[in-house]
Design brief:
about 375 residues, alpha/beta, Purple Acid Phosphatase, chain A, domain 2, six-stranded mixed β-sheet, 14 strands, about 45% helix
């Protein structure tokens, strides 16, 4: 963990220095050079410090600090890219002896960044309903009449608060689903009293099937299980249940340091009543092991985790990491994978050209 934090700090220090250097070069801020350097050093450690504090102290002051540092990190990512481009242009201009004051461009970019930030914050807090048609082999007639809702990656607690959970619950109830699937990163980072969350979750009017993932382990699964036991959520681990002749399969995240034994899970399922003759739906948080799940006979895999990186242009990273299966529907033969970009946010409390979604699955 210490090596990971050190690597993150190194990246943040380097990024902040590039932005700091660009401001010095383009705005000729020589008089306040030392003060600006100290400010950027404080900003570079701010998010890591806020992440640690919000995990220890669950109060409004620490959460506000975490929120502001998250916003700054988002702004830094764009200022860093613009700094590199500006420095490259400046270098080219010097080679060809071109005179142009890039300071004007910098001022415009900073103004536009501030202007549109409010919209991306608004966008992140206003999910849309997406309808997706999926064909499943041997689907029982009763399932063709079911309205199935799927959500993932809510990330409660430091930034996503009760009001947003209540909003999501109300939107789900308005859809009047027969069943709700959740491959949640339900809880996120901070400790504290979370028992009252059960009151919100229990107002969902349909059956709820849930599988945990990595962010639950940051709070430790014993605490998460304690909360979930007070809800109507059906949480199973590495097993399946039969719901109206469709096999619902769970594969859980092991623990904070554990590794997934995918072969062992398949062997365990083979020793049960699982059969390829029946339709099957797998709840697995991350869009991986696609070939293995397809070969095993899974008809529909529901995943999330990627958030499609939340902010453009960084979603190209998740495109490459997950081989373009980081969002939307992938189909091959009798296998389908739907990866949602999630309902909540992590790190920056915003989404840039990336709207959170509640997915309605129309199974055919």
């Amino acid at each position: 963990m210490s090596i990971f934090i050190l690597a993150i700090l190194t990246i943040l220090l380097g990024s902040h220095f590039i932005v700091y250097y660009s401001l010095i070069v383009f705005f000729w801020i020589t008089k306040y050079k030392i003060s600006l350097l100290v400010l950027f050093f404080i900003l570079s450690v701010s998010f890591v410090l806020a992440s640690i504090l919000v995990h220890i102290f669950n109060n409004v002051f620490v959460r506000t600090y975490y929120y502001i540092s998250s916003l700054w990190l988002w702004a830094l990512s764009y200022l860093f890219i613009f700094s590199l481009i500006s420095l490259l242009i400046l270098w080219i201009f010097k080679i060809f002896h071109i005179s142009f004051d890039l300071k004007i461009v910098w001022i415009i970019i900073i103004f536009l960044t501030l202007l549109i930030t409010w919209y991306w914050l608004y966008n992140a807090n206003n999910p849309v309903v997406k309808n997706v048609d999926i064909k499943i082999k041997n689907l029982p007639e009763v399932w063709k009449q079911k309205k199935v809702v799927f959500i993932s990656d809510l990330h409660l607690w430091a930034i996503i608060r009760e009001w947003y959970l209540e909003k999501i619950v109300n939107m789900i109830n308005d859809l009047n689903p027969s069943i709700v699937f959740i491959t949640w990163d339900l809880l996120d980072w901070s400790d504290g009293s979370l028992d009252h969350l059960a009151d919100y979750i229990n107002t969902i009017k349909s059956d709820i099937y849930y599988v945990n993932w990595n962010h639950e382990t940051y709070l430790w699964m014993t605490e998460v299980d304690k909360i979930l036991q007070k809800t109507k959520i059906k949480e199973l681990k590495d097993e399946f249940v039969d719901v109206d002749w469709v096999q619902i399969v769970w594969v859980n995240y092991k623990d904070r340091y554990g590794k997934l034994n995918i072969d062992g899970i398949f062997e365990k399922l083979k020793n049960t009543w699982f059969t390829k003759d029946k339709s099957s739906i797998l709840l697995y948080h991350e869009p991986v092991y696609i070939q293995e799940f397809s070969d095993f006979g899974i008809n529909l895999q529901l995943s999330g985790h990627t958030h499609k990186w939340q902010i453009w242009p960084f979603w190209y990273i998740t495109n490459l990491l997950y081989k373009w299966k980081d969002y939307w529907l992938y189909t091959k033969d009798n296998y389908n994978l739907y990866t949602t970009n999630g309902i909540g946010t992590w790190w920056p409390p915003m989404r840039v050209w990336n709207t959170p979604e509640i997915v309605v699955l129309n199974l055919k």
